[in-house]
Amino acid sequence: MSRNRLGELLALRAWQRHSLVLAVAGTVYVLVGTSYILSEAIPSRESSLRVALAWMPFTAWGVVWIIVGLLAILSSRWPPASETWGYTTMTGLAAAWAAFYGFGILLGAPAQGISGLLVWGLVAFMWWAISGLVNPSLDN
């Protein structure tokens, strides 16, 4: 690999609006993951997320949330060729979480899980929609 190509690969993008959104959202995902690791789940949440918990315990899901958050933060500046790949990771996890709540409801979880389905479904939609927006020019 040439030095020029390596330099391009390791370069950072300028800080822009997508950078801010990805860094803040990534930090929130890290904090959500930390809360899953440090707090004890209430029974209704466990019931609502029983499909997710059949795969892994909350602590492992906490690690997944932290990794996705760190990837989003990384994507806020790198690589220069792609401004929005971090939204894909956050969209995927939010959509999965919405689906877990949905399946929980279908399997008899309390109806309060509907709010989890709707909120995480909306978050997934918003990340998908925001990823298609163009950064405002730096002159604004």
| Class derived from helix and strand content | mainly alpha
Reported for the largest beta sheet, the result is: none
What's the β-strand tally? Answer: 0
Poorly predicted runs are none
Beta fraction of the residues?
A: under 5%
Helicity level: over 70%
Average of per-residue pLDDT values: 93
Number of helices: 7
Q: What distance separates the N and C termini? A: 38 Å
Helix/strand order, N-terminal first: HHHHHHH
Oligomeric nature of the chains: single chain
Shape: elongated
Provide the gyration radius in Å: 17 Å
Written account of the structure:
It is a single chain. With 140 residues, this protein is mostly helical. The chain contains seven helices and no strands. Helix 5 packs antiparallel against helix 6. The model has no long low-confidence stretch (mean pLDDT 93).
Itemize the secondary structure elements and their pairings.
Blueprint: H1 3-10, H2 17-38, H3 43-48, H4 50-55, H5 58-75, H6 85-106, H7 113-131
Helix pairs in contact: 2-5, 5-6, 6-7
Summarize the structure.
Helix content is 72%, strand content 0%. It is mainly alpha-helical. The longest helix has 22 residues, at 17-38.
Protein traits:
single chain, 140 residues, mainly alpha, 7 helices, 72% helix
